[in-house]
Amino acid sequence: MLNTQINPTYTLSKLLPLHKPFVTGDYTTHSSSSAYSPAILRQPTTTKKSNATRTRSTSVGKIKAINIPFLNKTNVKGVITIQPTVSSAIAGVGIGGVVDGISDLLGMSLLLELVSNDLDPNGKQKTVKAYARYDALDFDINVYTYKCDFDVPEDFGEIGAILVENEYSKKMFFKKIVLNNDITFTCESWVASKHDNPEKRIFFTDKSYLPSETPEGLKSLREKDMESLRGNGQGERKSSDRIYDYDVYDDLGDPDQSLSLARPVLGGNDHPYPRRCRTGRPMSTKDPLSETRTLLPFYVPSDEDFSEIKMANFGARALYSVLHAVVPTLDAIITDKDKGFPLFRTIDMLYDEGVNVPPPDNGLKTILPRLVKGAVDTADAVIQFETPETIDRDTFSWFRDEEFCRQMLAGLNPYSIQLVTEWPLMSKLDHQVYGPPESAITTEIVEQEIKGFMTLEQALAEKKLFMLDYNDLLLPYVNKTRELNGTTLYGSRTLMFLTPTGTLRPLAIELTRPPSDDKPQWKHVYTPAWDATGSWLWKMAKAHVLSHDSAYHQFVSHWLRTHCVMEPYIIATNRHLSQMHPIRRLLLPHFRYTMQINSLARLALINAGGIIESTFSPGKYSMQICSDAYDQQWRFDHESLPADLISRGMAVEDPNSPHGVKLTIEDYPYANDGLLLWDAIKQWATSYVNHYYPKANLVESDVELTQWWDEIRTVGHGDKKDEPWWPQLKTQEDLIGIVSTIMWVGSGHHSAVNFGQYDFAGYFPNRPTMARTKMPNEDPTEEEWQSFINRPEDALLKCSPSQIQAIKVMSLLDVLSSHSPDEEYIGGYIEPAWAAEPTIKTAFEEFRGSLEKLEEIIDSRNVDPKLRNRSGAGLVPYQLLKPFSGPGVTGRGVPNSISI
Fold it and tell me: Which of 271, 548, 553, 563 is catalytic?
């Protein structure tokens, strides 16, 4: 192993290292595609165990200061740690070039400038400069170290900031700067070359300050740093930029490639939507409202680009590899895009035998070990899927009515079920356009199904009726979707009854087709049946509902309510909350990686012709439906877990209950576990906020905080700026509620809808994303009806996704459900700024302790036979809100942020 101690004799090889993996060769306008290279970072063999995957920062030992009294100065030593990048390590020698080598040789690699908290007698900043010299590469902790010496005057005062000038020709990722007088600057940031950006980078110490408490010597730097992040709203962004600005979603379509790929702009009066990060790309010549696209990853501010410094199977790079390697390979080998599965046994072969594909490179095998298996021979490799846990435990679970309902409480989308509070069920859509508004699910149908239990009136009064209601959201798109090839759509309602055992029983499914030019409204109610024909029609109706629920889950519960709505919070935080602001430091762990993942989604997932449009029933209308859901349903004040449950009638406020709410369904695994996690998050936020804001007036007088919240409401979510439900921000309690909601959405909410995707939808009959054919009894020809009667299984398979659609989705869900080995779990890592404040450190330790107890509670609940919605023969235990996990597809684990 290399000796990382200071060597007093500097050889040429020491000052001019051959390998320089801390620099990147990215001069393009967009992020370099090499950032997503599948190759793994090479490290020498060592017998010393490294814990680099468990931490993000490197601790550096203290060095005693040397006093030089006759100069009235103190020698302060500094150690800078630099994170190697992936692509430069792969590229090998000579990356930095001759200029960078000379800088190392002369000891002029980095210019650092300490800044005092105090101003001098003339009101000017007090600073001390020094160059840092390259010292060593520590393979154990995988960082480069640089060292410098400052001669600091005794009257300099407390050090509060440091300015950095990168003399290299490439950008570098700074992890931290540690001075031997117990002062730390936690950077975790890219520093551009001075040739790309001549402005010196500003870093502040780990001590947090409200704006009103900012030391005089740092006030101008505090504002200057935020100004550099806001930009001027002009020009195309470069990969070295750190600019956070807003734009509408005008880059999902690609009219330059084909007018059939043009899509409406999301954001504005016609299609309300949250804002994304502005990239400034030129507008299309064929559609002046659309921004041009690129094959490279879209711009994100440099500090949001983690691909160059994370492990090879980091979520963004693994996702990029699936989108740009696995999916095109599958498209090439499966030429018949409409070919379905002829038998259910054919589906099983995906897990037993896999799909032969051309051999991918070794890097892809490293990133996707679950998918890409060893070569069968010299010509082929195999993409072979792991059997999802739901099917591994019970092969026929997807077929059963009780599992159909149970998964609405303990499955992938526990956000849609709602209490029935009005009867009869009525549509709010214009009946002149969409037909009679009354539901065809009548009192007689319901009472026939619950005969022996109670009347409909009793069921409503006792809160026993629940439903999935996708009627009004989907009905406007039914006729338009049916004009697309290979898909169909209905408006749907699914009614369920809460049995005395606490489980749900399905009562009826209503499917509706609105009137069209040549056909009247078609509406039919299906119920569980005891005859062969009725039973198969019921199974087909469930398949259609599941395709609706899969679409709603992916567009709304997952993309919109976590990824999409978080981006404006991230942008506003960087524009208005200083590095040293305590609320920024509280929220930052919940923002990491999200903008980079979102940019990849715009690149190849939610874009025109992307995976979502090609594999989900609404096709090209998918994101318009998402916009409608934002317009009609999304409210910030309903995004906290208790408020969400109350808004759906799944809970009522009850100060005597443990979490301040009483659940309508007592055994609701998502809500039961989620409320414990919500309480822990809110208690942590309460301790944190009350420490920095001991008085209410401090909240309202915080100018950065006020500007932050105002911009979130009026710009980031500007299409809803006039809504009366936005919380005020005047007191500690207001702030606690706001930050708790943001933290919950980025952690618990996202985990609940993401990390179970492969377990629940990896076997697509359990959650089909596509219904390709209409119901057999909807205006059938004699031939169509007879075909259904003769082979109903064929009808179900023809309605299901095609082979290419299913395999694409399965490949994607495998990656989306995976945890990276260096995942950052909630409560697992204390941020340096929190550790620097004893009161906050204690509060965080209490937070971590409550999460460890939550793990034990969830384990005990999953073996409780009385809890039949999470414990029973063949059931997958509900573990999605267990805070911690190992790597891979585990069906558990709550990361701090939306990291995949």
Answer: 563
* C-alpha angle 230-235-239 in degrees, rounded to nearest 5: 75
Between helices 219-230 and 565-576, what is the axis angle to 10°? 140
Distance between CA 802 and CA 686 in Å, rounded?
50
Torsion angle of the four alpha carbons 36, 38, 41, 42, in this order, in degrees rounded to the nearest 10:
-150
691 is catalytic: no
Catalytic, 900? Answer yes
Instruction: Clarify whether 717 is annotated catalytic.
Output: no
18 contacts 159 by C-beta, under 8 angstroms? no
Which pair of tokens denotes residue 664? 């309508």
Handedness of CA 206, 209, 213, 216 (dihedral sign): positive
pTM score, two decimals?
Answer: 0.91
Out of 754, 766, 862, 869, pick the active-site residue. Answer: 754
Q: Where are the beta strands (DSSP E) in 617-719?
A: 651-653, 661-663
CA–CA separation, 539 and 12 (whole Å): 74
| 712 is an active site residue | no
| Residue linked to tokens 């939306």 | 898
- Contacts of residues 185-189 at CB distance under 8 Å and 24 or more positions apart, as own/partner, are 185/161, 186/57, 186/831, 186/832, 186/833, 188/56, 188/57, 188/303, 189/302, 189/303
- The predicted-structure confidence for 8-60, as pLDDT tens digits, reads as follows 333 323 333 333 333 433 433 444 334 443 333 333 333 333 333 333 443 33
Residues in the chain: 900
**Options 558, 576, 659, 819, the catalytic residue:** 558
Q: What is the pLDDT of residue 11?
A: 31
Distance between CA atoms of residues 900 and 885, nearest Å: 15
- Is pLDDT at 854 greater than 70 in this prediction? yes
Q: Which of 750, 804, 869, 896 is catalytic?
A: 750
Contact 382, 333 (CB under 8 A): no
145-204 pLDDT, tens digit each: 999 999 999 999 999 999 999 999 889 999 999 999 899 999 999 999 999 999 999 999
Q: Is 656 a catalytic residue?
A: no
3-state DSSP call for residue 383? strand
Contact criterion met (CB below 8 Å) for 746 and 590: yes
Q: Helix axis angle, 401-410 relative to 532-552, nearest 10°?
A: 20
